[in-house]
Specification:
Elements lengths: L5 E8 L8 E2 L3 E4 L3 E2 L3 H4 L14 E5 H11 L12 E4 L10 E4 L2 E8 L4 H7 L13 E7 L2 E2 L4 E4 L7 H8 L11
Length: 181
C-alpha cells in the first residue's frame, strides 16, 4: 500500500447554505454525519436536496490552492474554498475508495469533489474551470472523535480496522460523481 503522512491545516464549517465559513480550533467528527455544526450534517446546504453518504465531510489540498494561485493568479483563502478540511501533503485523489485517518478519526474517501458555479459566485473569483479535477474529496466519517489542526492524515489498511466496520461501510457503495455544472 502506498503510504504518505500529511497533516490537517484548517477546519471550517458553515451553519447553512451560502453562510460564511467559520474556522474552528477543533471539531468533533460524528460517525455517519460529519461535523455537527456544519451544513452537510444538518442538511441545510445548497446541495442538501441531493445529499449522499459520501458528502459527510469535504477536504481540499493546500497544494491545489497553491497551484490555483501560481497557474491562474487566483488566491483562494482557506475560508473561501467551502471545504471542511484543508490538508497538506495529502494526495486526496489517492484516497478515493480507501480508508484513512485524520488524527484518530477513521474516514473513507467516497469520491472526488467537483467545482460548481455556486462556489465561484460566493468566492467572487473565477475558480470553476481551474478547480476541475482539483476541487477536493468527499468522504464518509466511519469513526468519529475530536480532530485538530496539526493532526496527521494517513491511509490505513482496512485489515487494521474492525471487520464489522469495513463490512458495514462496504454495503453502501460510493455515489457516482455528479456532472460538472
Amino acid at each position: 500500500m502506498n503510504t504518505f503522512r500529511g497533516s490537517l491545516l484548517h477546519i471550517h464549517v458553515a451553519p447553512a447554505a451560502a453562510a460564511p465559513m467559520a474556522e474552528l480550533a477543533d471539531a468533533e467528527l460524528i460517525a455517519g454525519l460529519g461535523i455537527a455544526a456544519d451544513r452537510y450534517a444538518t442538511r441545510t446546504g445548497t446541495y442538501s436536496a441531493r445529499h449522499h453518504i459520501d458528502r459527510q465531510i469535504t477536504l481540499i489540498e493546500t497544494e491545489a490552492l497553491d497551484a490555483l494561485a501560481r497557474d491562474h493568479g487566483v488566491e483562494l483563502a482557506a475560508h473561501e474554498h467551502r471545504r471542511n478540511l484543508t490538508t497538506a501533503g495529502v494526495p486526496l485523489g489517492h484516497l478515493v475508495g480507501r480508508y484513512f485517518l485524520v488524527g484518530d478519526a477513521v474516514l473513507y474517501g467516497g469520491r472526488l469533489n467537483v467545482p460548481c458555479n455556486h462556489l465561484q459566485e460566493l468566492a467572487g473569483k473565477r475558480v470553476f474551470r481551474p478547480l476541475v479535477h482539483r476541487s477536493g474529496l468527499n468522504a464518509r466519517v466511519l469513526v468519529g472523535t475530536t480532530i485538530r489542526p496539526g493532526d496527521a492524515i494517513v491511509p490505513i489498511d482496512p485489515l487494521r480496522l474492525p471487520a464489522e466496520l469495513v463490512a458495514a461501510n462496504e454495503r453502501d457503495p460510493a455515489s457516482p460523481a455528479p456532472e460538472v455544472f
